[in-house]
Amino acid sequence: MTHRQQELRLLCVGGARPNFMKLAPLLRALRADSRFHALLVHTGQHYDHQMSGAFFSDLGLPDPDFYLGVGSGSHAQQTAEILKSFEPVMLDAKPDAVLVVGDVNSTLGCALVAAKLCVPVIHAEAGLRSFDRTMPEEINRVLTDAISDLLLVTEPSGLVNLEREGIDGAKVRLVGNLMIDSLRKHVDQARQRRMAERHGLAPGSYGVVTLHRPANVDKPEALQGILEALREIAADVPLVFPVHPRTRAKLPPVSTLDGARLRLLDPLSYIEFLSLMSDAAAVFTDSGGIQEETTVLGIPCFTLRDNTERPITVEQGTNVLAGTTRDSILAAWRKHGLRRPGARTPDLWDGQAAERCLQAIEAHFLSGR
Ligand code: UD1
User: Fold this and answer.
1) CATH numbers and ranges of domains, the chain
2) Residues 148-168: pLDDT tens digits?
3) Which atom belonging to ligand 1 lies closest to the Cα atom of 106?
4) Of 77, 86, 130, 271, which residue is least crowded by CB atoms under 10 Å?
5) Closest CA relative to residue 174, chosen from 120, 131, 126, 129
6) In this predicted model, what pLDDT tens digit does every residue of 170-214 receive, in sequence order?
7) Residues assigned a catalytic role
8) Among the atoms of ligand 1, which is closest to the Cα of residue 78?
9) How far, in Å, CA of 28 to CA of 18, rounded?
């Protein structure tokens, strides 16, 4: 395959649900700029319509140029499938650089293949650290950053973390938050979808729950404690809970849980979830990205974890670390309730992160070419 000398040929990789809202604004900006030739690879780590296809249509993502179909498996199996199936794509497409986002197994797998072929890696959402190596995402973050050539950072803590790990500052740029580009683009459309009303709930009268971290859902005792806390909170404020497939497989029979005050739903599309979240009074979650989205929406967020790799959402935003036990979650709920005085939106979470990513890529790869 040949390509014009001045055009930077990029393979952009997505694989799992949280990747797609970061890729969409970036791909749109890259494809609107003739200096770049951007191809999309979907690893197929997430493959259900509800976990993948619905996100492509809501976000206006184009069909992938390459679909790897890696599917589910243990970490070793899934990562091995990603390595094996991405290498031939690299050899075929001959990119000038590979762009990966976030912290999922697809992020690390594709970055590793590229680095071993001596193709530069661009990592968007670099530098975040929970300092908890039992989280699979933390391993993915540390290793991806170690082999990346351009590290695009969402919040200042990322700069500090990368410097501490000895990463050359010339490779690092604070660009803001791509996920918030997607949120700002779609929030009006999402509000018009009126998901709360469709479920018979008045805006501002309910909480939204999401739960999928292995540490919270894979061990029955851990999941039980969280569910007990949620049942008690639901007596104060009704809760709506779109259930991730990993969690669905671990929950007690739905009939014993689902009710008027704690309502279980199938996973929602991007716009449907944004609609439900943007009208919520509070959110209870163990997701990473939702901590950021609630900060921008100004909605109180209780993070059902002991740590966060996104400290700015606690320091400046609406996020509170509520821990993972029944007692810690209820204590946080009773202490903080629905108020978050003084919360503000972090700098550069302004809907323009994709443009700054392009400038950083241009400066790194094209200036002086
Ligand atoms: C992955 C990411 C996590 C991210 C989450 C968002 C890693 C290490 N973890 O976790 O960071 O927050 O995605 O969802 O990459 N399944 C389906 N349909 C699908 C995909 C998965 O039913 O389309 C089920 C399968 O039973 C699978 C399980 O969900 O075994 C878990 O999927 P997996 O990709 O292993 O990890 P997630 O828990 O989704």
Assistant:
1) 8-177+349-366 (3.40.50.2000), 186-336 (3.40.50.2000)
2) 999 999 999 999 999 999 999
3) 15
4) 77
5) 126
6) 999 999 999 999 999 999 999 999 999 999 999 999 999 999 999
7) 212
8) 35
9) 17
